[in-house]
Amino acid sequence: MTPPNTPTVAPATGRLGVLTVGLGAVASTLIAGVELVKRGVSSPVGSLTQMGTIRLGKRTENRNPLIKDFVPLASLEDIVWGAWDPFPDDAYVAATRAGVLEGGKHIEAVSEALREVRPMAAAFDREYVKRIDADNTMHTINKRSMLNAIRDDINRFREEKQVERVVMIWCASTEIFIEPGPAHQSLDAFEAAIDANDPTIAPSMLYAYAAILEGVPFANGAPNLTVDIPALRELAIEKRIPISGKDFKTGQTLIKTVIGPMLRARMLGLSGWYSTNILGNRDGEVLDDPDNFKTKEESKLGVLEHILDPETFPELYGDVYHKVRINYYPPRGDNKEGWDNIDLFGWLGYPMQLKVDFLCRDSILAAPLALDLVLFSDLAQRAGLYGIQEWLSFYYKAPMVAPGLYAEHDLFIQQTKLKNTLRWMMGEEQVTHLGREYYDEG
Ligand SMILES: NC(=O)c1ccc[n+]([C@@H]2O[C@H](COP(=O)([O-])OP(=O)(O)OC[C@H]3O[C@@H](n4cnc5c(N)ncnc54)[C@H](O)[C@@H]3O)[C@@H](O)[C@H]2O)c1
Predict the structure, then answer these.
(1) Model confidence over 384-411: pLDDT tens digits?
(2) What's 392's domain CATH number?
(3) Which atom of ligand 1 is closest in space to residue 89's alpha carbon?
(4) pLDDT tens digits, one per residue of 104-140
(5) Structural domain includes residue 384
(6) Same domain for 79 and 92?
(7) Residue owning the nearest CA to atom 6 of ligand 1
(8) Ligand 1 pocket residues where CB is under 6 Å
(9) pLDDT tens-digit series, residues 229-269
């Protein structure tokens, strides 16, 4: 099938406003990081938009530009920050509290810029994040009032900061588990549920709804349902707004979506995969609550099932014991340790084991993903793309896909999809890896 016509991508003129919902570890590490990169103090390691290249044409052509030179992304210089958080801490205090970055080396170097990012009062309801008790809120849990206040905030931010375009990214706590229900099925039902203060309308949905209504692309870094409901997916199409989610794919799941496809590619069997983590940041504390952990667990568990496809390969993957644990352990702070014990089997069913011990840094892994999502969401809007941006599934544990489709979880399929989307956007040939042309004899 020939791909649809190449879109026209509008240039990235003027300033880009980035609104983070939540100004905790990830958001403050993102903001400090971008400010450090702008000043030439550090490198944007982990960011595909800043460091990645893309192959164009045949391998013999040697065309491998940087992605940021190939597609018209907003420049880091043009980013202006805004945020909401129930804690009143500015980004300087938030970064210091989060304990991710070294104070002397990194936070002080950009202290002025960080001090300028002061959180707006949050649309916050403790019912959805019980472990957080803070007062920089809208002081109402009336859903209609919260929605209107978020819309006002977006417009005030736009005017005060004189930004041409705005992107919103959810970097706030994981909310309690909510199943898709009647209130989410249509815009009419959703609207009525807001007026009825229906508990299945979480604050994150109000942020996403406000973003779409105000013409702002929305990306969801947490596993909450948020924008992944029919009412908002359909509205995003109607209003021509790009949306994407859910849940940054940073540590253990990133590894899972590399090792899982490897097992399947080689037709190696799996009998069990036990994953456990210790984590001591505020996110870990929120996830210590079973209702909030349930949201995360669902997002983490789905991955293997889709990659291994037990229905097609019952002998290899029909009886896999898969367990995921997150344990709140304060001494480690943001420096998460994730263990994986993988029980696999090979030729004639002989068992083997694979152990992974990833001593990672949660927000160091998440910040570059948040940056890429912001820049690509803005690019998508300028390219006239709207609705679910499946090409951004590279960044997510539980990628949003069109109804009826299964999500691609394999990291390298996701990467190919992302790069082919960029090629298509710029009128370049798709890279299919067929490669017959190198061997044609005629
Ligand atoms: N760091 C990672 O590797 C990673 C990976 C995947 C997903 N995530 C998700 O990203 C999110 C942010 O992680 P973090 O480590 O920065 O957490 P964090 O606890 O440091 O920051 C979250 C912030 O959100 C605020 N918040 C809560 N509800 C809010 C609301 N309704 N409006 C505005 N602000 C609100 C909290 O007060 C807190 O300051 C979490 O949901 C986490 O699960 C992180």
Answers:
(1) 999 999 999 999 999 999 999 999 999 9
(2) 3.40.50.720
(3) 39
(4) 889 999 999 999 999 999 999 999 999 899 999 999 9
(5) yes
(6) yes
(7) 248
(8) 21-27, 84-87, 98, 122-124, 129, 132, 134, 171-174, 203, 221-222, 247-248, 250-251, 281-283, 286, 362-363, 365-366
(9) 999 999 999 999 999 999 999 989 999 999 999 999 999 99
